[in-house]
């Protein structure tokens, strides 16, 4: 096929890769190196990095293995968003550049940096271990090896999507809570815990759930959905997080978790008034003693600035509450039925 000069220009151009650099053994602070190379349409960011490493600067460090979106090794931030370098097209990134023609490449966030674009995955692996994210067989030992442990298609469909996770840590890098609290369980770990907890071959459900409702666990998630938006395998991570929370309330009640009490108080307000009674929410979630001890200074500041929420008697019900309550009741019954069907 004859290539016209216009197609030729559209199909190949110089692109600058602005790459984050830090070798903690020699550098006192991070910096960026610019590498400008000719790139053809169809080239991935990983192939561009390989070109730079092979032809311009062998010291640029990043992790890579399958080069096909399977192993999860090449997670990095490209133009500010965590994704896989081996499945990201340079051409798709060009319109997203802050500075025309310059693609910014940085390491994943929320994990310790080892060198350049390589982060330490040990904290994530450590959390997987802490939350016991493996199947501990519920089959009695004498029966092991004598019969198969079959999983029905219906059961498998409950965690099918979760098994697509390749542990690339892109969701971990984008998690808003992890940025503030590195102890937080993290979305990838919650996804894996959910996958294990709905597996009927597993015997650790109760132990795992007891750990998940502790501090830094499932109730700390703010529902920002960043993890789900970022997931390189389009896994509905939030369904897993909601699934663990529903399971926790069903199996453990409200006794040991401020998060569960918060969810209950939230639902109760919505059912009764169609809106939140914010002034009493902290008391109902954390108790009077905790609220007075921890939130009193903030409450005083809010009073001084006249930013306090209205007291309960002044919170009027939303309009159309009769119909809303009917719909709310139907919705909660539907969710309960759904939950029962899942747990059969
Ligand atoms: S939804 Fe929860 S787990 Fe996901 S990124 Fe936000 S805080 Fe993190
Ligand atoms: S859930 Fe998605 S983004 Fe997170 S580690 Fe797994 S594949 Fe990567
Ligand atoms: S190198 Fe394996 S997912 Fe990119």
Helix content: 40-55%
Count of structural domains? 3
Strand content: 5-15%
Low-confidence stretches: 1-8
CATH topology of the largest domain: Fumarate Reductase Iron-sulfur Protein, Chain B, domain 2
Report the mean per-residue pLDDT as an integer: 89
* CATH class label of the largest domain: Mainly Alpha
Provide the spatial order of strands within the biggest beta sheet. Answer: 2-1-5-3-4
Question: Span from first to last CA?
Answer: 60 Å
CATH-derived architecture of the largest domain: Orthogonal Bundle
Query: Which kinds of small molecule does this entry bind, naming each only once?
Result: iron/sulfur cluster, FE2/S2 (inorganic) cluster
CATH homologous superfamily name of the largest domain? Alpha-helical ferredoxin
- The H/E string reads HEEHEEHEEEHHHHHHHHHHHH
Concise synopsis of the structure shown:
This protein has 344 residues and is α+β, with helices and mostly antiparallel strands. It is built from 15 helices and seven strands.
List keywords for this structure.
344 residues; alpha+beta; Fumarate Reductase Iron-sulfur Protein, Chain B, domain 2; five-stranded mixed sheet; two-stranded antiparallel sheet; 44% helix; disordered N terminus; binds iron/sulfur cluster; binds FE2/S2 (inorganic) cluster
Strand and helix map with partners:
Elements (H helix, E strand, L loop, with lengths): L4 H7 E10 L9 E10 L4 H11 L19 E4 L2 E4 L5 H4 L8 E5 L6 E3 L2 E2 L2 H9 L22 H7 L10 H5 L1 H5 L6 H11 L7 H8 L13 H5 L6 H16 L5 H16 L7 H6 L1 H17 L16 H23 L1
Parallel strand pairs: 1-5
Antiparallel strand pairs: 1-2, 3-4, 3-5, 6-7
Helix pairs in contact: 8-9, 8-11, 9-11
The structure holds iron/sulfur cluster (2 copies) and FE2/S2 (inorganic) cluster (FES).
The site of FE2/S2 (inorganic) cluster has 12 residues, from loops.
């Amino acid at each position: 096929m004859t290539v016209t000069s216009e197609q030729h220009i559209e199909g190949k151009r110089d692109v600058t890769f602005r790459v984050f650099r830090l070798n903690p053994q020699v550098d006192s602070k991070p910096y960026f190196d610019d590498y400008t190379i000719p790139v053809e349409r169809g080239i991935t960011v990983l192939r561009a990095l390989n070109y730079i490493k092979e032809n311009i600067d062998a010291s640029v460090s990043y992790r890579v293995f399958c080069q096909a979106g399977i192993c999860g090794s090449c997670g990095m931030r490209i133009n500010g968003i965590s994704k896989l370098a081996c499945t990201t097209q340079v051409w798709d990134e060009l319109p997203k550049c802050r500075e025309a023609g310059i693609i910014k490449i940085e390491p994943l966030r929320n994990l310790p940096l080892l060198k350049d674009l390589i982060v330490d995955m040990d904290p994530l692996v450590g959390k997987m271990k802490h939350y016991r994210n493996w199947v501990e067989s519920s089959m009695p030992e004498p029966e092991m090896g004598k019969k198969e442990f079959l999983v029905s298609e219906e059961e498998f469909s409950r965690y099918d999507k979760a098994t697509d996770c390749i542990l690339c840590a892109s969701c971990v890098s984008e998690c808003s809570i992890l940025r503030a609290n590195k102890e937080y369980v993290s979305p990838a770990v919650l996804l894996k815990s959910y996958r294990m907890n709905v597996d009927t071959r597993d015997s650790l459900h109760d132990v795992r759930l007891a750990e998940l409702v502790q501090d830094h666990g499932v109730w700390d998630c703010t529902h920002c959905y960043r993890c789900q938006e970022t997931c390189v395998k389009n896994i509905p991570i939030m369904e897993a997080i909601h699934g663990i929370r529903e399971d926790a309330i069903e199996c453990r009640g409200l006794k040991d978790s401020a998060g569960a009490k918060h969810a209950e108080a939230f639902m109760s307000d919505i059912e009764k008034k169609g809106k939140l009674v914010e002034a009493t929410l902290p008391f109902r979630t954390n108790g009077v003693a905790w609220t007075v001890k921890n939130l009193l200074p903030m409450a005083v500041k809010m009073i001084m600035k006249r930013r306090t929420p209205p007291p309960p008697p002044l919170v009027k019900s939303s309009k159309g509450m009769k119909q809303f309550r009917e719909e709310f009741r139907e919705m909660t019954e539907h969710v309960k039925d759904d939950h029962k069907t899942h747990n059969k």
